[in-house]
Task: inverse folding
């Protein structure tokens, strides 16, 4: 008989046969999978047969999340990654090579600016910022070297919106692909692939997960597009984790309910703050005052506009910082898309890479506060945010 250590390892590795399917997808907390032959492993590593070999390549819990997200985004394929940035890195590097140019929104998620400066610049890939609220400006920015136009359905943090369908049409006429970061809208409010986008990414850290307890990302599109980006993610080691994929699956089940409440709460807060003392401007696509309100009504589900709102407190940068100190219900923290209301000051956090001039040209003032409206009772949120604005304003 084998010794105790051998028997313990064998005994503790037996996967139970489960004739009744569990109601939830199991967390396949394993880095590797037993194969029957060298050929089988070789084929698995090439994705030439169904199954799993090594969790940096694929894992059943990741695959369950990929199937679910692909269905909800109307995509042929999906690959999940360690974070939104791992997903963005995979998509960008699969479309661009040394000498190519990426067209990006002037007001874009700060991580994309960081990626351009720290990774793309070393690879000899340039990024051209453009006002993506204006399709003609995007057309003018597309040059000989442009391979990809990067858009955000609702942009971070100004809530500016891009006309994805119009931009996809003019980019495709020039042989240029379009990728959309759909994190702020979530697959519930918008499906950019149906509007003509070639690739979609999500930071599942945000609305898909919905509870500020995971980090993850996803790439969606045709099999060709997703396989191209997957090769980068696998080789750069940006793989998802089984527990995070499980948490994202759990989040997806309530995404619709949460987005409805995020949207109604944000609209209530936006309407109340538009006329509140100490507030000089509210940017929310659900308000008639928003520059792209008509586009929001046309592109987002049932007139909802999600939970992201930007606020201008009278008194500039100092007033913005005081506002954060006065919050009692909302939490001062970076990130977004969660059950609790989160407030941040982009000029000193997510967009700290930008100079004051760059901030201004992106429509992002130094005193702007980004608010991710949560699922609390709307009256409590309105009272907390109005009180902070009144106290902060000079
Ligand atoms: C948070 C975020 C990202 C990056 O996602 P991580 O999961 O933090 O890597 C990208 N785009 C947008 C719009 C985001 O809000």
Result:
């Amino acid at each position: 008989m084998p010794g105790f250590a051998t028997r313990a390892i064998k005994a503790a590795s037996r996967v139970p046969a489960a004739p009744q399917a569990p109601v939830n997808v199991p967390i396949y907390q394993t880095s590797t999978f037993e194969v029957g032959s060298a050929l089988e492993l070789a084929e698995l590593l090439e994705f030439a047969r169904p199954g799993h070999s090594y969790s940096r390549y694929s894992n059943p819990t990741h695959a369950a999340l990929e199937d679910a997200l692909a269905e909800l985004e109307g995509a042929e394929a999906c690959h999940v990654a360690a974070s939104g940035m791992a997903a963005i890195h995979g998509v960008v590097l699969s479309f661009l090579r040394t000498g190519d140019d990426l067209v990006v929104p002037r007001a874009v998620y700060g991580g994309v600016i960081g990626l351009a400066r720290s990774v793309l610049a070393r690879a000899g890939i340039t990024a051209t910022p453009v006002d993506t609220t204006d399709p003609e400006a995007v057309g003018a920015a597309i040059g000989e070297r442009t391979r990809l136009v990067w858009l955000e359905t609702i942009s971070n943090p100004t809530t500016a919106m891009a006309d994805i369908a119009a931009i996809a049409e003019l980019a495709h006429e020039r042989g240029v692909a379009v990728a959309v970061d759909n994190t702020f809208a979530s697959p519930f409010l918008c499906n950019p692939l149906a509007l003509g986008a070639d690739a979609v990414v999500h930071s599942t850290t945000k609305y898909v997960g919905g509870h500020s307890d995971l980090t993850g990302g996803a790439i969606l599109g045709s099999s060709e597009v997703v396989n191209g980006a997957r090769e980068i993610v696998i080789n750069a080691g940006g793989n998802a984790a089984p527990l995070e994929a499980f948490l994202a699956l759990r989040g997806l089940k309530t995404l619709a309910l949460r987005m409805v409440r995020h949207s109604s709460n944000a609209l209530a807060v936006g309407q109340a703050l538009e006329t509140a003392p100490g507030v000089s401007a509210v940017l929310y696509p659900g308000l008639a005052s928003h520059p792209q309100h008509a586009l929001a009504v046309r592109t987002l589900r049932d007139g909802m506009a999600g939970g992201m709102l930007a606020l201008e407190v009278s008194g500039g940068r100092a007033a913005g910082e005081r506002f954060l100190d006065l919050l009692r219900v909302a939490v001062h923290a970076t990130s977004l898309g969660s059950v609790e209301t989160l407030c941040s000051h982009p000029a000193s956090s997510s967009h700290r890479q930008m100079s004051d001039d760059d901030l201004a040209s992106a429509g992002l003032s130094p005193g702007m506060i980004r608010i991710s409206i949560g699922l609390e009772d709307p009256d409590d949120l309105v009272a907390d945010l109005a009180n902070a604005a009144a106290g902060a304003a000079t």
In short: The radius of gyration is 22 Å. The pocket of pyridoxal-5'-phosphate is lined by residues 83-85, 109, 111, 152, 156, 181, 183-184, 203, 205-206, 215, 217, 336 (CB under 6 Å). The chain is about 40% helix and 15% strand. The chain has a mean pLDDT of 96.
